Amino acid sequence: MQRGPSGLRGWVIPVLALVLWELWSHAGTFPIDTLSRPSDIAVAGARGFIDGSIPLATWQTVQAALYGLAVAAVLGILFGVILGLSPRLEGVVGPSIDALRPVPSVALIPLALLMFGFGLQMEASVVAFACLWPILLVTIAAVHGVEPRLLDVARVLQMSFAARMFKVILPAALGRINVGLRIAVSISLIVAVTVEIVLNPRGLGYSMIGAQQSLRPDLVYAQLLWLGLLGWGLNAALNKAVSMWPGGVQSYEDVQP
Amino acid sequence: MRTSPEGVASSLGGNPPAESVSAVSVRRLCVSFASAAGSHLVLSDISFDVRDGQFLCVVGPSGCGKTTLLRLLAGLLAPSAGEILFRGQPVRGPSRDRAIVFQDYTKALLPWRTVAGNIALSLEACGIAEPDRGERVGALIEKMGLQRSAHQFPGQLSGGMQQRVQIARCLAQQPTLLLMDEPFGALDAMTRQTLQDEVARLATEQRTTVVFITHDLEEAIYLGDRVIALGAGRIAETIDVEIARPRNQLETREDPRFLAHRHRLFGLLQEH
Fold it and tell me: Whole-structure pTM over 0.95, yes or no?
């Protein structure tokens, strides 16, 4: 991808759309009850930030998304490595995974509500369920893809399970596990907001429903745009974090002369 | 610590107790793999001994079961029948006592660790902590001539240098048996000769027992005290090479005994 001028070119369409939208909003045909003016949206967003309601809701949503994601990552990578290393165990557990995986995660909301009640834990548990599968499946595939010769080396050195996992298998599989984590990041945000919109009285999803019910399309748009930015930011932050993993594949390309 | 009586005793204990002891005894070894076409016999009725400190070369055409034999000796594979004794004990799995140098060095080194880090892996596995570890890594880097590459990653090195790293990592285990699986097969002729001489020198210096697999007849005769020729999963011939060490790339290869062995093995392997 080209940087520089092409980066500026990418802004042409959004800016043009905003300008046209704003111009149109001053004409008589503009449906003001469903399409807010960009200027109103900016004002609503700024007010939400100043009075602290958007930052609070954002924190609640991100907290649930990251909590669920962290649980899914730990479980998914742990069991993914175990299943990836043992074809026999995978044969036993695999069919159960295939049976559970297609269950829509939002269908678990009633069950999660029964188990945890309203609040963070309920939301995070649904997020964790949704994020577990991509991480688990990608980790299993990543471990299958680890160079068998490296596993031979670990065996000859009689490395402990922990040493094998942290010194050989995880660093070798990290590049691919990273793909699963990236998919899971976007899923985590989607599911967290969905749970909030459906029934959990916290976070950005709930806040958007509130704005809709009080007939404030400007506030709905403001939060929607903010959510888009948030997802983009979370993805970028995770990619950065994973690429800084000691022994991450990128670290040795960096030192190449 | 190093001058304490225990230290001396344990370092002596690591040496071969006597010349005649067998480091490895292979008894009526058979290996067969199941395939779609039925069971395929890879090795059949292989028996031999390797004396302590001996340099044994196993030579044979590709597909004759050489690599399978080496994986059995390493304990990475279990035989279908027969047994392998290592210093009198049956081999039941891999052990740090038996190091193995693989042919495909690009796959056997950790690409995310530097040269020093790759060598340190063995020492970490052996439970050797800093600062001892760093010292030993430094010594091995010097021994294998890797001083300039210590902080480079394997992907930045030539094939010969990468294979040096793998050999250094194996030496770091302080093995009693060094297994080498066509270690120089993928290297250019000049590098191969240099490394042949270095391995021969190291084996003599450290009195390590070596089992060296190759498809190169001359390499086998040049390096080995004894050469076993494998053909179609059986031992076709065993010869003892009585050419004195240190051997020399020019003179040894022109020695009448060297040429005689070469003729004999060449003829034998042609039949298979």
Answer: no
